[in-house]
Amino acid sequence: MGPMTHPVVAADLASSADYAAAVASAVAASAAYYTDGSSPLGDDEYDALVRAIEAWEQAHPQDVLAESPTGKVAGGAVQGDVPHSVPMLSLDNVFSAEELADWAAGLERRLGRAPAGWCVEPKLDGLAVAARYRAGVLQQVLTRGDGLAGEDITHAADAVLGLPGRLAEPVDVELRGEVLLTTAQFEEANRIRLAHDAAPFAHPRSGAAGTLRAKDRPYRIELTFFAYSAIGLDPDLGHTALLERLAALGVNTAATTAAAPRRCETVEQVQQRIAEITGLRAELPFGIDGVVVKADDAADQQQAGSGSRAPRWAVARKLAAEHKVTRLLDVEWAVGRTGIIAPRAVLEPVVIDGVTVTYATLHNPADIERRGLMLGDQVFVYRAGDVIPRVEAPLVDQRTGNETPIAFPEVCPRCGDQVDRTEQRWRCARGRNCQAVASIIYAAGRDQLDIEGLGSTRAVQLVEAGLVADIADLFTLTREQLLGLERMGETSADNLLAAIEVARGAALGRVVCALGVRGTGRTMSRRIAAHFGSMAALRAADTDTLAEVDGIGTEKARLIAAELAELAPLLDKLTAQQVGVQVEEPQRAAAATEAAADGGAVGPLAGEAVVVTGSMTGQLAALSRNEMNELIERASGKASSSVSKRTTLLVAGEKAGSKRTKAEELGIRILTPEEFADLVADHLPQT
Ligand code: IVH
Q1: Ligand 1 center to residue 227 CA distance, Å?
Q2: pTM of the predicted model, to two decimals?
Q3: Mind listing the pLDDT tens digit for each residue in 76-109?
Q4: Beta strand extents in 207-275 (DSSP E only)
Q5: Ligand 1 pocket check for 90: Cβ under 6 Å
Q6: Which residues are annotated as catalytic?
Q7: How far apart are the first and last CA of the chain?
Q8: Is there a contact between 115 and 297 (Cβ–Cβ < 8 Å)?
Q9: CA distance 645 to 649
C-alpha cells in the first residue's frame, strides 16, 4: 500500500513499515497544505497522524526518520530564501480541556509557580507572516517558510487590510501575525475568480495562500491581517499589553472581533473563555481552528523559553476542523416556491464541527460546471458562519477515473414542464405556477382527495387558465368555466364536477394530507385530523398542541406549525367552502379513545401496531396501502410502514419479502389478507 492510498492512520502504528508510510503521508500532506492548501488530509486527520508518529518515535527513538515532521516547524514542508530575524515558531497542540489542564500544570512546574496570568485568543486559520517596518514604514513582508527563512511576498501587502503601509509612530518593528480571507472576502474572491474563469478557491486558507504568492493576476483579492506578536517593541510588555500597543500603532488585532483576546487569572477562567470562543465560532466572520492560550507576562514567557519548534509558554487548544473532505454521491434538484431549480449535493456523511453533514448547497448549474464537479469526486465541504454547508471544489488529483458527469435536469423535476435556462439560476418555465400545478396534481391523487379526471394535463390547464391557484379553488369551479377549457366536453366537465363534490366530503385526514404539509405523510395527516377534529381547530393549532399528537416531537411540531401558519389563508378558504368537514375518522377515534377510557369496547385492533406488506388479495385486493392504513385505524389499530420490536401484527400478502422475514425473526403474529379481512370485517369499506 502506497503512503497516499491510506491517508488516515489515526490508530497506533504497528510496525516500522507503517511508521515509514505514515511519515511519508504526513510529509506529502504537509507539503500540499503549505504550498496551495490542498492537503488530502483534513486538519484532524493530519493531527491524528502526527500524534501516532510521535507515539511510535517515543517507543523507537533510535529509528526516527530524518524526514519525520515531528519537531519541525510546518512539518518541514517549505523553505524560503529570506532569513527570519528570529525563528517563526509554531505552537504545540492540545485537544481537550484535560490536556490543556495538564499542559498548564507542566508550565507551572517548570516555572515553580503559577503564571501571573493568561491571555486567551482565537487561533486564526490563515498563514503566518512577518512584516518588517523601519521608522514606521513597511519594508518587507515574508511568509513563515520553514520557520528559519521565508518567501518575500511584499508585492501582496497592498491588498492586505489591517497591515498598514505606515504605522502611527516611526518605530522599527517586525509584526507577526496571520493573513486570511474573511468569510466575506472568501465569497467575494470566488465571485471574482469565477468572473475571470479561474477555478474557485476550495477554502479560505488555500485562497489566502494562493493570493499571497500570486504576482500577475488581472484582478485584486483583498485579505485581512491580524497581528498576534511583534519583535522590537519594549521586551517587558506582557502579551495583552503588546496587543494594545499594536492596535495603537494602527495594526489590526483580534481585539476588533467578538473573540477578542482576554486576560484570565486562573486556568478555570481560561477554560471558560475557550468555551466562549468555541461557541462564537460559527458566527465569527473568519475561520478559526483553535484557541491559543499564552502566559501573559513577559517574565513568565522569558523564564519558560522556547523549544526548537514551539514556545513553552503558549499552546493551541485545537478545535475540530470546519472543512472536511468527503465524497459527492449524488446531486438532487429541488424546485423552490418561485420555481427556481436548485441543485443540492448528497454527500457521504461526514462530521464537521460536531455535526453530521449529508447534504450541502451547490450554487447553480453553471457553477457546478465551472467547478468541474463530478459524481464520485472527493470534495471539500465547508461550513462557514452559515448553517448549511457548501461544496467548494473537487480534489481533482484524487480522481480514480470512476467519476461520472452530473446530470442536469432536462425538464422541471417537479411538474415536468420545460426549464428556463436564461439565467444562472434555472427555473421551471411555469415559475410560481409550477408549485400550484404540482400541488394540485398531488392533492387530487388517490390517497388524498382522489379526484378522478384531474390528472396533470387538466391541472396544467386549470392553472394556466387562471381558474385555480390552490386546491381550495377547485371547489368553486363552475360548469361554464370548465366548458371554456380546450378538449373539455360536457360529460368530462360533469364528471369532474361530480368527482370534486365527492372530494368536498372527503375525510379530514385526506384533506390534511392533500395540503402537502412538509413533515407529514398520510398516516401523520390522519393522526392530526383525528386529534384536531376540524379544519378550524387545525387552523388554531400551535407548536404545543401539535406536539400532543402521537408521533410528533417538538422539533416536528415546530416545522408543522410553521407550515400551517404559511397555509393559513388556504385553510380559511377550505373552511369557508366546507371542505373536509366530514370528520368521520376523528369522531371514531375519539369515540374509541373514550370507550377505551371507560373500559368499553373498541375496534378489534386496539393496542395493535400493524404493518402491511406484499400484495393484498380477496376482499382487500382493491385497497391501496393508504386505504389499508385507514382501515387499520378505523379498527383502532396503529398503522406503520416498518417492522420493529414494537410491531404486534403483520398482514403479509403475496410476495411479502424482508418484512415478513423480519417479523418471523421477531416472533410477530402474521396474518394473510383473508384472515385479516375477517378480523376487521365490521370496518371494511362499504362497496
Ligand atoms: S502565536 C511564538 N497566536 O498558528 C508564537 N499563533 O499552529 C507562535 N496562529 O505558527 C505563534 N493564531 O501561524 C499565535 N493567536 C495566535 C495565532 C497563531 C494563529 C498560527 C500561527 C502559528 C500557528 C501554529
Answers
A1: 10
A2: 0.52
A3: 555 578 999 999 999 999 988 999 999 999 999 9
A4: 223-231, 262-264
A5: yes
A6: 123
A7: 69
A8: yes
A9: 11
